[in-house]
Specification:
mainly beta; Thrombin, subunit H; 4-stranded antiparallel beta sheet; 12 strands; 7% helix; 48% strand
Length: 122
């Protein structure tokens, strides 16, 4: 298996995959468990890959595609925005308000949905 820095992460619909960046071969592929529709966003942090879709964020092990945890953001809009800053991961809505935060032992992930942020900014 390639090192995690040799992987390219792609997503479409419910599918998230890791490709070997040198050969283009699929290393692993998973389908996210929920059927909610919205754009899929991806972000890496350390050895973790975060996937946001349908009002949920999933923490995925980059090496094998195992979902380590998932967290809903309790919104009707479904879009999850993510960004990384100085070793921590955060997501903010258009109004700039952090809506929810989930911290793991080695990293932090903050998630927000467009609908929840619009309501909070309201």
């Amino acid at each position: 298996m390639p090192e995690t820095h040799d992987l390219l992460f792609i997503g479409s619909g419910r599918t998230v995959a890791a490709l070997d960046r040198l050969t283009g071969k699929t290393v692993w592929r998973i389908k996210l468990p929920r059927l909610f529709g919205s754009p899929l966003t991806l972000m890496t942090h350390g050895s973790e890959l975060y996937a946001g879709r349908g009002g949920y964020v999933y923490c995925i092990d980059q090496r094998n595609g195992t979902i380590l945890w998932e967290r809903g953001v309790n919104s009707s809009g479904g879009m999850v925005f993510m960004t990384s800053n100085g070793g921590s991961a955060s997501a903010q809505a258009a109004a700039g308000h952090v809506v929810a935060q989930q911290q793991a032992a080695t990293s932090a992930a903050v998630v927000a949905s467009a609908a929840a942020a619009a309501a909070a900014a309201g």
